[in-house]
Specification:
By secondary structure, this protein is of the alpha/beta class. It is built from 16 helices and 16 strands. It folds into 2 domains: about 110 residues, Roll (Urease, subunit C, domain 1); about 290 residues, Metal-dependent hydrolases (TIM Barrel, Alpha-Beta Barrel). The strands form 2 sheets. Strands 1, 2, 3, 4, 5, 14, 15 and 16 form an 8-stranded mixed β-sheet that branches. Bound molecules: zinc ion.
Length: about 400
């Protein structure tokens, strides 16, 4: 039985908004006094509320003073970890660099030690708490990376935690294996470590159905391009989708992402015009992570230049205990937008269908027939209020698969 949800003052549909390039706000596709007809988790039709009323007797009545958008998609997070990195953050505020803290055995290694020690129950409880907070803020699909295990046993433990949490929460979790986050202390040679992952871990992910996506941190201090390429090519040959932490401090990763046909190249704070043009010509989504720029006190991803060159740009939190502890997608997108001079259409596209595309998901991120009925509503009568409030204005209604989340 179909159900009509509405009326909404404005429905921001993004039905025909292009996947790539710069966008003016007239590309949003706004329906005034709109309604959404849903059936069996999917959107059947979107249009004028009064006209849609004739198509069903079941109406979920909204007071008419709300703006409706597609549910947000966060396509890059590291939501499973043990411990805290408040000490690192204090050091960074006093001027110590991320790479220096890593060299001194802090940074990622601190999270690795605490994640290895944590029980699956402890890790799952932290993940569920964070995922539910995200859902309350309108994020209905959340990518989750492993990467604080760094050996077969602990990487499997973390990805099992993600799988088990999926059954208990309403938001969708999309797991990604980032075992190649940094070389663990047990291995002297980075190449040996990647060969170990390729032989011992990747085949198990397929057998156990724990992840269909592989990520790597391409950076001289983590994995240089020359040795990262073999590992990612092997993963591709096994049938995995690829995504790459690229060009955060040094360039090289984005070229590899484009060469290997990765779904996305994420970070790109160090990308120059050469990398920007490469990405713009490709189908690889450029993912900006303003939370990492804010957490490290560094420059933002050059999203204005990427969009103007014709790239598809998504915006994600990079939510992690080290460089991006805030994890608030809307706050970060609003801040990125004012610094990089983005239109509302570009910002919202980056949090919805363009982020979904970075995950290879064509079934969400737009309010259109056949799309998942993942929706967020804000208590205002003008969509411009959302970014104007710089993320402080939160949705007061969220739907996942057509069902209203009760505790929002
Ligand atoms: Zn990351």
């Amino acid at each position: 039985m179909s159900k009509l949800i509405g009326p909404f003052k404005e429905v921001l549909t993004f039905t025909k908004t292009p996947q790539k390039g710069a966008l003016e706000d007239d590309k949003i596709g706004i329906i005034q006094n709109g309604g959404v007809l849903v059936d069996n988790e999917k959107i059947l039709e979107v249009g004028d509320f009064d006209q849609l009323k004739s198509k069903t007797s079941e109406v979920e009545e909204i007071n008419g003073d709300h703006i409706l958008l597609p549910g947000f998609v966060d396509c890059h997070t590291h939501l499973v970890w043990g411990g805290t990195r408040a000490r690192d953050y204090t050091l960074r505020m006093s001027g110590e660099s991320y790479e220096k803290i890593l060299e001194q055995g802090g940074g990622i290694f601190d999270s690795v030690e605490k994640t290895r020690k944590a029980t699956p129950e402890e890790l799952k409880s932290g993940l569920i708490k964070r995922a539910n907070r995200h859902l309350h803020d309108g994020v209905t699909t959340i990518e989750v990376k492993s990467g604080y295990g760094l050996d077969v046993e602990n990487e499997l433990k973390v990805l099992e935690v993600v799988k088990s949490a999926m059954a208990e929460i309403e938001a969708d979790l999309i797991p990604t294996c980032l075992a190649a986050h940094v070389c663990p202390k047990e291995f002297k040679d980075k190449k040996d470590f990647l060969i170990y992952l390729e032989k011992e871990l990747l085949p198990q992910l397929l057998v156990k159905g724990l992840a269909s996506r592989i990520d790597i941190f391409v950076e001289p201090s983590a994995f240089p391009v020359e040795i990262a390429r073999d590992y990612m090519s092997a993963a591709k040959n096994l049938g995995f989708d690829l995504t790459i932490h690229a060009d955060q401090f040094h360039t090289g990763g984005s070229q590899m992402a484009v060469d290997l046909g990765a779904r996305s190249a994420d970070h790109l704070e160090a990308s120059s015009q050469k990398e920007i043009e490469l990405l713009a010509k490709s189908d690889t989504v450029a993912v900006a992570l303003p939370g990492a720029s804010l957490g490290l006190g560094m420059n933002f991803t050059p999203t204005r230049k990427l969009l103007d060159a014709g790239a598809s740009v998504a915006i994600s939190t990079d939510w992690n205990p080290g460089s991006a502890p805030m994890g608030d997608l809307l706050v970060q997108a609003a801040i990125l937008g004012i610094y990089e001079k983005m239109s509302s259409a570009e910002i919202f596209a980056g949090m919805t269908f363009r982020a979904a595309h970075a995950l290879g998901l064509g079934d969400r991120g737009r309010i259109a027939p056949e799309m998942k009925a993942d929706l967020v509503a804000f208590p205002f009568d003008d969509y411009r209020e959302i970014l104007y409030n710089q993320g402080k204005l939160k949705p007061d209604m969220v739907w996942k698969n057509g069902n209203r989340i009760k505790h929002v």
